[in-house]
Fold this protein.
Amino acid sequence: LIDALASDPQARSPVELSLSPVFRRQYASVYDGLDGWPVDQSQLKALLLAVASVPAGDGFRLIGLDHTPKPRPYAETVSDRSFVYQPTLIRGNKPVTMGHAYSVIGQIEPTDRETWLAVLDVERINTAWTPLEVGLSQVIDLARRCDDWLVVAGDSEYSQPVTVACLGQCKHVTGVFRLRSNRKLYRAPGPYSGKGHPCWHGPVFRLNDPTTWSDPDDSDQWTETDERGRPWIIHLRRWRHLHFREARHHEVEVVQIQVTDPHGRPRFRRPCWLLVCGQRPLSLTTAQRVYQRRPVMEHYFRFIKQRLLFKTAQLGTTEHEEKFVQVIVLAYTQLYLARFDVQPTVRPWERYKPAPPLQQAATPAQTRRGFARLLARMGTPAQPPKPRGKSPGRPTGAHPPPRPRYPVVKKGQMVASVTA
């Protein structure tokens, strides 16, 4: 099943994978295989970690953290569905759908321009948990299994006080998360005056109010040129010794990234703000470069939804769905391992693209096109089928009951708190 998913670009559903030449069984074996597969999560996580490359250069593993929805609006027999976030292009519509959500962490190459993600863990977000809680549990579990320095990059959903408190207790984990422009932090309080209760928070630092800022503790700038030859000046500023009100014992850093033209006019309406937390510091340019590589997560989500049946696979139970998601992860890992071994092919209507440089990995789509030829040369570890004759089928008079129906879970507002 993994070989068929990684090499057959024509299948539109899991059952159509049985028509692939590398799938040597009948179509019923797709679901029988999912039923009889005892997934060992600990061994699977250890395998995925061994696949990822060893850190070099800066000496850390860049870990991307994000979650994505799997819409199942009509699957009444699938349990634990809820209203999950799904972006929409129609203005005024609520960006929600009914289904499941999956949290993903993976390793990103911090220096290359590749769109590959070495997936390390995928977990379905239970309705009793929030994406933030599941993502932090995955990061903490990875920190326990890996002794390397981990730099975690995420969007604004993860820039919360609970994240700062959790990563502040890990000696070799640093977080770089985007901050919303309406957030506020606090500086360290002044010396105790000797009267009343000591102050816990100093002057406020509002991201959208320049009057509350002070001179930055560190700054840098350089000029870059875009595809049209236009020069843009990148301004970086950093403020240290800040904290959230709910996590006053954990100091953080705030980095501002602003892009202007040579005349000082900003390219974007608002600057980008980054939150840097953890016990191990990062340089100013490294923090900016780390977050600049975070969109690799979006490339991974788009590829598995468009090519690996993540969105179109409509399995009848939650257990089957979770196992098929693990099949998708293993099929993508097969392509990740073969990215340097396949011959990149360019289609006739793609001739306008420049030739890739030597020793550069093929893209995920190009690797999938050539994986069937690679698989034919090196073979597969899957055992050949052993026909056992005609199955007796269902006994006469057996009438299985219909599958139970499950309501959609409506979660209330869940806010994670930290005891200061």
Summary: The first helix runs from residue 2 to 7.
